[in-house]
Amino acid sequence: MAKFLLGKKIGMTQIFSEDGSVFPVTVIQAGPSTVTQVLSEDKNGYNAVQVGFGVKKLNKPEAGHQKKDVSKKEKGFSFLREFSPDSDKAPQLGEKIDVSQFEIGERVSVKGVTKGKGFQGVVKRWGFKGGPKTHGQKHTLRTPGSIGSAFPQRVVRGRKMAGRMGGNTKTIVNLKIVYIDKEKNLIGLKGAVPGNRGSYLEIFSRK
């Protein structure tokens, strides 16, 4: 991946095109991100750069890790991620990365954590139809029904059942950049991205 950046989801809006059609747009506070660590093949076993975004008060281990690049007294970066840059254009420690590297019309991928929905039943989690609404139905309208089989006499692995929903890492690929504000470090992507408002995101382009 040649281009990468960290950001925070602001929310969604809509933009009208020249022909009058409307399409959804996700607005992201993209950077500026700071290179907090440069990893090399000789020292770390692989080549990568770690970038930081956001602000929070650090504990002692975090402060020790970020002491080389944190200029704020007791605050550092709250969101750290690693990327694999091009070998000939690898950024240096402390270098700032912003939205100026992207262009309108370019396609990028966005990685984030989906909204957590807690423990949910099979109707919401998997889209089950449920039982009949009449004819002797009482408290089993949204139940999954039988979960076993005649053979083998057990519940097979992977059976769709109730459980925790959401809170998973998900990547949306091939999102088109339709808006860039370099002064405010804003970027607008056509379509939706994972997470709720205020969640952190990874933005990168693949080659």
TrEMBL record:
Function: One of the primary rRNA binding proteins, it binds directly near the 3'-end of the 23S rRNA, where it nucleates assembly of the 50S subunit.
InterPro entries, per database record: Ribosomal_uL3, Ribosomal_uL3_bac/org-type, Transl_B-barrel_sf
Alphabetical keyword list: Ribonucleoprotein, Ribosomal protein, RNA-binding, rRNA-binding
Pfam families the record matches: Ribosomal_L3
Gene name, Swiss-Prot/TrEMBL: rplC
GO biological process, one term: translation
Ribosomal protein keyword on record: yes
Name recorded for this polypeptide: Large ribosomal subunit protein uL3
Statement: the UniProt record of this protein carries the keyword Nucleotide-binding: no
GO CC terms: ribonucleoprotein complex; ribosome
Organism from which the protein derives: Candidatus Spechtbacteria bacterium RIFCSPLOWO2_02_FULL_38_8
